[in-house]
């Protein structure tokens, strides 16, 4: 059974990126994530990437933002399956980034990686909206894909 869930993600310590870990055994399809980053006065611009990472640390996909965030700025980041990439430049208050509609396998972690994050930068107001299905359904779907692949293979 597929469920629609919205969940607040724990706020990390200052100077740290955030991580969203779905419940064990669940496969998720990310619909949207919103998160606010407040940058310190450190002069470096921050470049943010949303990553989907498997249980072995392999990056399954990455969604970099269009623009870097300048110092002393508050920006709301929006990743969703309906957006197109946009921002109004580095002075914008909202950066949006499209993410494709696909299911992530169980034990996948969603996280940010912020280049040049300062020890006083702070992520907050992190909310994830996603569809979830259990691992059994995920395994059934993988088996069906394998079956279809062998049926369509010229050697199979």
**Largest sheet report:** 6 strands, mixed
CA distance, first residue to last residue? 32 Å
Q: Poorly predicted ranges (pLDDT <50, ≥5 residues)?
A: none
Q: What Rg do the Cα atoms give?
A: 18 Å
Instruction: Compute the number of helices.
Output: 1
- Secondary-structure-based class equals mainly beta
Percent range for β-strand residues: 35-45%
What is the string of SSEs from the N terminus onward? Answer: EEEEEEEEEEH
Strands, total number: 10
Helix content: 10-25%
Please tell me about this protein's structure.
- This protein has 156 residues and is mainly beta.
- Helix content is 12%, strand content 44%.
- It is elongated, with a radius of gyration of 18 Å.
Any key phrases for this structure?
10 strands, mainly beta, six-stranded mixed beta sheet, 156 residues, 12% helix, four-stranded antiparallel beta sheet
What's the layout of helices and strands?
Layout: E1 3-8, E2 19-20, E3 26-38, E4 47-53, E5 59-64, E6 74-80, E7 94-98, E8 103-104, E9 109-115, E10 122-134, H1 135-152
Parallel strand pairs: 6-7
Antiparallel strand pairs: 1-10, 2-9, 3-6, 3-8, 3-10, 4-5, 4-9
Brief characterization of the structure:
This protein is mostly beta strands.
């Amino acid at each position: 059974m597929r469920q629609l869930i919205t969940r607040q993600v724990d706020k990390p310590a200052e100077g740290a990126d955030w991580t969203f870990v779905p419940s064990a055994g669940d496969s998720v399809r990310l619909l949207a994530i919103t998160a606010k980053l407040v940058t310190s006065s450190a002069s470096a611009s921050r470049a943010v990437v949303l990553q989907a990472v498997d249980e072995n640390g392999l990056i399954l996909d990455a969604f970099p933002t269009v623009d870097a965030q300048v110092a002393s700025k508050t920006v709301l980041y929006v990743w969703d399956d309906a957006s197109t990439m946009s921002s109004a430049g580095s002075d914008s208050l909202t950066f949006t980034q499209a993410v494709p509609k696909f299911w992530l396998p169980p034990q996948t972690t969603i996280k940010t990686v912020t280049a040049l994050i300062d020890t006083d930068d702070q992520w907050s107001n992190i909310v994830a909206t996603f569809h979830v299905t259990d691992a059994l359904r995920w395994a059934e779907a993988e088996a069906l894909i394998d079956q279809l692949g062998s049926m369509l293979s010229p050697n199979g």
